[in-house]
Design a protein that fits this description.
The protein contains 15 helices and 20 strands. 34% of the residues lie in helices and 17% in strands. A hairpin with a 6-residue loop joins β3 and β4.
Length: 539
């Protein structure tokens, strides 16, 4: 006797709502063979003459007993593939790993957590006169820890979901600073595997080059595996068959939340023979990539230090958010009659007095090109630009029709600037792309007359980022209009420093490209081994 699970949409005759039901039948062997040969069964609805399509899956009684979920939509989903495929594989918990939750904190100064753990205030007691929270009685060690928490939060020295991608950590400048926390288990360590738990599953391998900052509560750490085993696990967790298992819906909410119990019970394919040389190849390329990104961080620090020396206090302007008042020269106030815009006008004038130049004097803003849009092209969006002065190479062609684009193709030595002020992203096109790429209208193309790489470094500095924020329009989504870009003022670079920075950036970009190509080769070899143990695909 076998069990047949049928899943189909049905109509509730009372409320006229669609819902999913499951039928479980026992058939004689002859009938089972007959239905199995159809592959797909079409029947009429119980309530009307509507024709619906059912998916069919054969399950034995033992398989049903072993499954965590009885619902038909689970057994017919990609989430059920891995348990059937890895029936004889050990669960992840059997490998002796430790699963560690991320750091549960709040960066809101008014939150209860922040008041108690950073400001060291007792949120249960108030001064009867001032109505302020009373201070906690804490030890010197607790006070030192509160100082560390404040530095970590203020400087964003922690890893978030957006830092995970492509089996590694994709870092921002903040994450290259030295760690502030000590002796906390939610800080990463070499050979850890960091798992994304919210929205979708994903993983990153932690090499020795990453700074040992904490992870937030939307991530988890898998700790205790040898180097090559941790790398194999990271690769597996990025594959569709494992992600579908971890992303299965177990509750009424539609939000994916990967549970640690679910992770412990996950069957994991044993590391294949011959994986060690591939792991070493991948780790060598990852070290080269980390070195390139470390060099970029040092170059950025060098640029910022030069700006501080050149501009004598103007390199990092003060924040003008909130209620402010001030006196401005008439020439600093524009037709917008906006306080932030007037601050930028005043700042612009001071920079010009110290030898700065308007952007239009150093570059062509959104250069024009005759001719129509090529039929075969891809679109570069803000989300494609990363924090390493570059952008994703595998741009998708699928949604290009939804985006309004500029009319000029991206060319070598172009500097691409995001108009979204809250996320100042810059990309330097250091080589000619194989694909024809058009930037979206939410990006600005700058064609500098010389030292393009050096000026790209200046465009991402706090000096320029502050000016862009003052020139934005809109409250919720603050974008700068391309016409306002001419109001930006940056220092003019001399021959020596401009040529030096430009060449340094080119060398770093080339080293990064070589490392990325080596990583892709190693991952191709991993894919071949993976497919031998997992002869299935899920989407």
């Amino acid at each position: 006797m076998r069990h047949l699970l049928l899943s189909c949409p049905a109509i509730d005759p009372l409320v006229n709502n669609k819902f999913e039901i499951m039928f479980e039948f026992a058939f004689k062997l002859a009938n089972v063979h007959l239905l199995y040969s159809l592959g797909e069964c079409i029947i009429g609805s119980c309530y009307d003459e509507q024709i619906v399509t059912m998916q069919i899956l054969w399950q034995t009684a033992d398989e049903l007993d072993k499954a965590d979920d009885w619902r038909a939509n689970y057994h017919l989903s990609p989430a059920a593939v891995l348990p059937r495929l890895g029936e004889n594989w050990p669960a992840l918990a059997k490998s002796g790993v430790r699963l560690i939750d991320g750091w549960r904190f709040s960066d809101n100064p008014d939150s209860e957590w922040y008041l108690r753990h950073v400001r060291l205030l007792d949120t249960t007691k108030k001064d009867p006169v001032k109505l302020e929270y009373l201070p906690l009685a804490v030890s010197e060690q607790e006070r030192q820890q509160a100082d560390e928490f404040k530095k970590v939060i203020d400087h964003r020295l922690y890893y978030r979901m957006r830092h995970l991608g492509d089996m590694r950590l994709q870092l921002e400048s903040e994450q290259f600073q030295l760690p502030e926390l000590s002796d906390q288990e939610f800080c990463i360590q070499p050979d850890d595997v960091v798992l994304r738990r919210i929205g979708r599953a994903g993983a990153a391998y932690i090499s020795a080059q990453y700074r040992r900052h904490p992870i937030d509560a939307n991530l988890a750490i898998i700790r205790g595996l040898p180097t090559s085993d941790a790398l194999w696990l990271s690769y597996c967790l990025e594959q569709p068959v494992y992600r579908a298992y971890l992303e299965q819906q177990t509750g009424i909410t539609s939000l994916v939340r990967v549970g640690l119990k679910q992770l412990r019970d996950m069957p994991l394919a044993p590391k294949p023979n011959g994986f060690e040389p591939i792991a070493n190849e991948y780790l060598a390329a990852l070290d080269e990539l980390n070195q390139a990104e470390e060099s970029l961080f040092l170059l950025r620090s060098q640029v910022q230090q030069w700006l501080k020396q050149q501009l004598r206090g103007l390199a990092e302007p003060e924040d003008v958010r909130g209620w402010r008042c001030g006196f401005f020269a008439a020439s600093d106030v524009s037709h917008r009659l906006d306080y932030a815009h007037a601050c930028q006008g005043q700042y612009q004038r001071k920079l010009l007095e110290q030898g700065g130049k308007n952007l239009s004097a150093l570059a062509v803003i959104n250069p024009k090109e005759t001719g129509g849009i090529p039929a075969e092209h891809t679109v570069l969006r803000i989300s494609d630009v990363n924090d390493q002065l570059s952008f994703a190479r595998d741009l998708s062609d699928g949604e290009k029709a939804k985006w309004r684009t500029q009319k000029r193709l991206i060319k070598q030595n172009d500097v691409i600037v995001s108009t979204f002020a809250s996320d100042n992203k810059i990309a330097f096109v250091h080589d000619v792309q194989e694909k024809l790429i058009l930037p979206s209208e939410q990006l600005v193309t700058l064609c500098f007359h010389e030292y393009q790489g050096a000026y790209a470094l200046l465009m991402e500095s706090p000096l320029v980022n502050w000016q862009i924020k003052q020139l934005t329009h809109g409250n919720l989504q603050s974008f700068i209009h391309p016409a306002e870009m001419n109001n930006l003022v940056i220092p003019k670079l001399d021959i020596e420093i401009g040529a030096q920075w430009h060449q340094q950036l080119l060398d770093i970009m080339q080293l990064r490209d070589q490392a990325m190509a080596a990583l892709a080769v190693a991952k191709t070899k991993m894919a071949d081994m993976f497919s031998l143990l997992h002869p299935v695909e899920t989407k």
